[in-house]
Structure formats: C-alpha cells, structure tokens
Amino acid sequence: LALNERFLDESMRARTKLSQVEATLEALDGARERMRTALETSKQKTSSLLRETARAKEELSVIESRRELVNSFAVDFQLTKAHVDALTMVENASGETAEGASTAATAAPTLPSVFFQALERVKVIQGNCAKLANTDQQRAGLELMDVMTSYMETAHEKLRRWVVAKCRLLAEEDDFVTEGDERVLRKAMSALRLRPTLFKACVEEVTRTRHNALFRRFITALTRGGAGTKPIEVHAHDPLRYAGDMLSWVHQAVAGEKEFCGVIFTDEAIEGDEDAFDPSKEMLSKVFDAICRPLKVRVEQILASASAMEGGVMTAYKLANLLPFYRNLLGGLLEHDATITKTVRDLCESAKTSFADAVAQHGAKYRKLSLAPNALAGEDALAPPAVLREGVASAIELLESVATSSSTASGSDAEARELLALGVNGVIDPIVGAVEAAASRATEQARSVIGSSGPKWSGHAFALNCLYAIREPLRSHAVAAAKVDELSRAIATRVSDVADGEAGTLLASCGLNDALELVVLYQEQHGAGDSVMAKDPALQIDKLAAALSTLVDSAGTNAPEFNEIQAPSMRGDVVSRYNDKLIEAYTRVYAAILNPSSGYGSDARSKVRHGPAALSTVLG
After folding, report:
1. What is the CA radius of gyration of the chain?
2. Which pLDDT score, from 0 to 100, does residue 129 have?
C-alpha cells in the first residue's frame, strides 16, 4: 500500500508535469496557429509592400537620373549665386557690396574677384543656349538666353560705371596705376569692346572726366604747384623758363596720357556701323583740348612781352627755338591733327613772328642813326663807329646762343637755318644798310667839298672798314657762313671800285686811258691782222710811248698808299688790284705796239723806253 501510495504520488507529479507539458504544447500550438495566421496576414501585406518597394526603386532610379540631368543642366545653363552677385553687385573699398547703380559715386570702387569669371561663364551659357535653341527645347533655350542677356547687360553697365569711376580717380591721383589696376582695366576694356556702342560711350565719358581732371591739374600746377614743386607762375618773370616749364608739364602729361591709353586699350580699332573707332586716338585728341587755351594765352603773352624787354632779340630767338623742340616731341606722341599739336604749331609760327618783330625793332634804330664820319681825314676818321660794334655784338651773342644750344636743336635743320638767317640778317642787314648810306654821304661830301683833304674814295674806305668790322667776328661761327660770304662779296666789290677808280685816274692823267680803249676797240672790231691802228692819229707811236713812259714815272711817285683802309689784308687786296689794273693796261698797249699786224714797224720796240717788267718793278 505504501508502495502504491508512493507510486500514485509519483504518478500524480508526473501527470501534473504532463498536464503542464500538454498545456505548454497547446499554448505552442496556439502560438503556432497565431503565427501562421499572422504570417498569412503578413504575406498579404508584404506583397503590396514589395510592389511599393519595387515601384519606389523604379521612381528612385528615375529621380537619380533626373537629378543627374538637373546637375548637368545647372553646370551648362545656370549661374551660381556668387556669380549672380558678382555681376549685379560691386564692392566698395571696404569690401561691402552695394547695387551697381549706387557704386558710381564710390571713392575707390573695386570689382568682385569673380566678376570676369562670371562674365566668361555667361558667355559660355549663351553659347550653350544657342545650341539648345536648335533642339526640341527651343523655348527653354530662348528663355535662358534672355536671362543671360539680362545679366550681360547689367554686368556691362556696371563695368562701364566702374571704369569711368576708376579712370576719374586715377586722373585725380596723377595716374598712379598699380599692376592690379592695369590688369583689371585691360580686362574691363576688352569686355566692353564686345559692345561697340557702350564702349564708345564709355570712352567718351572717360575722356570727359580726364579732360576736366587735366584742366584742374594744369591750373593747380600753374598757381599752387605740387608735392615738392613750386607753382610754374612763380617764374613768370623769366619768359624762357616760364614757357619751358609749361611746355615740359604738357609733354609729361601727354606722355603719361599716352601711357595710360596703352594700359587700358589695345592697338586694334573697333569696327562699328561707321568708320573704324580708335579709342586711344579719340581720347588723346580730346583730353588735351582743356589746356590748349590757357597754354596758348600765356605763351602768347610771353611772346608779346619778349620784344619789349631788354635782350628781347635773344629771348625771342630762344623761345622760337624752344617751341619747335616741343612741337616735334608732341608730334611724336600724338596725331598730327590733335588740338594740342595744332596749338603748339600755331605758337611756333607766333614765336617766329615775334622773333622777326623783335629783330626788326632792334634793327630799326640803326636805320634811324647816321653812321657817316664827322671828318674825312685823320687817323681814325674813317674807323667804324662804336654803335656799329654794339650791333655786331648783338649778332655775335645770337650766334653764340645757337652754338651753345645746338645739342637741343629745335626743329629740322632747315627750320634752324631759316630762324638763324632771319636773326642774323635782321640784325646785320640794317647795320649794313646804314653803312651803305653813310658811305654814300661821305662820297658825296668828298666830291662836293672844295679843298677836301680826304681822298675821293673816302666813302668806300669807310664802308670797307665797317664791313670788315662786321665780317671778321662772324668768321668764327660756321652757321654765319652765308652772311660772311655775302659781306665778302660786298667788300670785294668795294675793293674793285677803289682800285679801279684810282688806277683809272692815274691812267687818265698819263693819257693812256683813252689809248687803251681805242686799242681794245681796234682789236675787237678789226682783228689782229689789220694795220689801221698805226694810222689812227690818237694811237701814234710817239704818243703811246710817251704815255707809257709817263705811267712808269708816275707809278713810282704818285701811287696811293690807301692808308685810310685800316685792315692790312683789305689794303693789300686794293693795292694788288690797283697794280694789276696798271700792269694789265700797260701790257696790253705794249703788246699792241709790238704786234707786227698793228702797223708800227719793226723799230717800235726802240721807241718805247720800258717794258712791262719795269712797271712791275716800280710797283713792287
């Protein structure tokens, strides 16, 4: 019983465990059933999700392809925000941005660093839009083209305003262009060249601003000076320096303006609807219009006052020499038809006129003076007067100025010779004219005054002394060679007149003058073979022999010494010609007598006491 009872107890425990197992199995079976049910339900739901997932994957693939298309479109047809801002905004000096319309008045504007990159980007997009317009997306291409064109218009307008403001600022700062400014200005002008109309307007506006700025700078340089320099008008009392400083400033300004044009413009011209447009020529020809009038007025005032001041001839000459120098300098930098070059050319002509007036005024006093000697006899009675030497000194001063300024010759050689000839002739010719008039009066006085102790050729002697005093100082200056030659010819003429006159007087007193004329006449008309000469009563052998003998005797006793002619060389020339004339006359008559064809016979030689050698010996 106890064993069965233990068995029943154990069986009950096992049964209890089995019940628990069965309950667990039932729970598991219920769970399995629920899981099966849930699985069936899940399968029904999952199939729709899988379909949605597959559809989503397909849509995602389409989206990705569209995204790639959009990104590619943005690369080819869209601007970034930075590029849009760069084209529509301009930075000021502090780095802040402002709308382009308000930046024209900024003191020191700068372009954004990506401006030109954005501008190139717009050009690329416009090219892509042109290609797109040829496809089935024509509308999109045209719309994008309109947008890009709008950006381009805005950018070019902002660029024009920036260029004008920058050029105005540089003009006020005396054109100190940094390397960065030079690079940006070149790019800006190259970009604006694509719009010829806008480019021309920009050039005109830049020209106007620089025109006004140059005028202000010129007036400032005249009246107030600059950093470390005095006002130019401080030297207004010195005409040459005053004019030189103004012209030097103009030359420096022209060179700077030409360099500035070279910085911002290329050499090529822009072809528009009209003729070719050269921006450099356009700017350079108009910018300097501003200073033409003040420069011309001041230089003409200098020229007008030069002739009235002491040493006016030299001052006028130096001004007339200075202006062509700057005319040539400016002509090498600017076009021939530029206003400033025309102005300087006009001033050159005015300078020549002023110089001519100064020379005429200087020479006028010699036309009014009487240089005639007070007496015709005496050691220095026929010497050149002091006033003549003063006039010659003026010409020498002019020539020395030419010699010292030859290294900076003004214009061409022809101009220099013309200017010098004008000066030398203007100074010397009135003196020579006064000498000629004085010599004529002295000659008349010597001939009209009874008992005059001076020779009849006193006027010639006075003229020779004066002309010699004029010519000799000019010999040391090669540039006065033409005037020296002219004076030498005048001296030679006077020497011939004096020598021929005295020789003729002596020949006439000996009775040989008329005989010589008849001999020459017979020889020319009848020839050497005609014997009628000996039959002429005036040419009888006895008369001719007596005349020749008288000439030899008189030549040793009555020969003039020509001491009134002070220069030994000229006196020697007169004596030499005087002797030559006598010997020539004697020899010709002597040869005619000895010529058998003259009809004087074989004993003609014995009737003539002396041969030509005797006369030569007597005359020394």
Report:
1. 57
2. 74
